[in-house]
Amino acid sequence: MYKIIILIYFFLFTSVTNAKDLEIDINSGQVEPLPIAIADFTDSSGEVSSLGRSISSVITNNLVGSGQFKALETAAFIAPPTSPSVRPNFNDWKPFGIKALVTGAIKAENNNKIEVEFRLWDVVSETDMIGLRLTVDKASWRRVSHIISDFTFERLTGDKGYFDTRVVYISESGPSNARKKRLAIMDQDGANFRLLKHPPSLVIAPRFSPTTNKIIFTGYETGKPRVYLMDLSSEEITSLPELKGMSFAPRFSMDGSQIVLSMTENGNTDIFINNLASGVKRRLTTNNAIDTAPSFSPDGKSIVFESDRGGGQQLYIISTQGGDAKRISFGKGRYATPVWSPRGDLIAFTKIKEGKFHIGVMRVDGTKERLLTTSFLDEGPAWAPNGRVLMFFRETPGKAGAPSIYSIDISGRNLRKIKTSSFASDPNWSQILN
Fold first, then answer.
1. pTM for the whole thing?
2. CA neighbor of 326 nearest in space, from 309, 345, 339, 311
């Protein structure tokens, strides 16, 4: 895992009046992408370098991939300023309808480090909006690109970015009747892929800790499902001895101190909460039905889960203190894999109806259900840390069918296939990296 050290930050804001024209309302039903130009970054001599082109390319792919921006190719042939501190010639950009401009420069430092500086300009008002300078290891240039993308996204949309993040998932290979599944990790755009080390047994459902560099997953090393923790720094795996019998479908609380999971005891599957520090587990549901796929609310006060206690697969919410569970899904079809949005306002889910699979969202009281996708098999939604984008996996039909990871925003627009090095399923998004 690469490391980044930010040494210097500086911010330059225009007045609210100047910046307002460039804010995108991403809550509206239909968003017209904002025309933006990302100039190739220059070197200390004021010339464009190959690294400068690579950084601007990653920023462009991030912003365009969000669906909120339209990057114009004019950035490739209009000469960028020799330094971000140099005021651009805005008349070069205005004829092309460009509203915002990103410029940047790279300066080599000692010990294989680089200083990267960027600035975001409002082309309409001819003012600078935000700037950033940071010194990093040269090998971390991609992460610098993601950080710049996040700052630009937030300044222009008013919402947090999600580019400086990673995704843990299941990398799949081989024929469908003998598919090998491995834990894998990558940047949110598919770069920096690597397989994680674990015993050669079936693994499923990896989930990031929101507060530590750890994941939790279900493994079948003993032949039965059991929950394991992995430290991503060392790839050391530990089991949770207090979870006896079959345990599966784990997720962390937002403060990282607890996990919620399903356990089967005496032939019955219920929801349990486990304190990671003390090892004390607490039973949350007591029901003859199958209660599984639990997910904490961001405030840690409630849990959404799926259950067939009503005769069919539906979604329920229960207090973390226990008590009666309240059903929230009432549409036709079956509901599964609910995940609470990090904003707390929505719950994403998988829906199975009339032979089709869908990824959908609803409010926490079950109202305003919206189906975002439909296909032969869409499953396993996972939230970006800003609560605006979902990843999931889609499997194609037939003997040659195989899974791939996709993303879509919560308006149902901008469906994108994520580039992976193999078949891929069950993604889970990290928080913004520190």
1. 0.91
2. 309
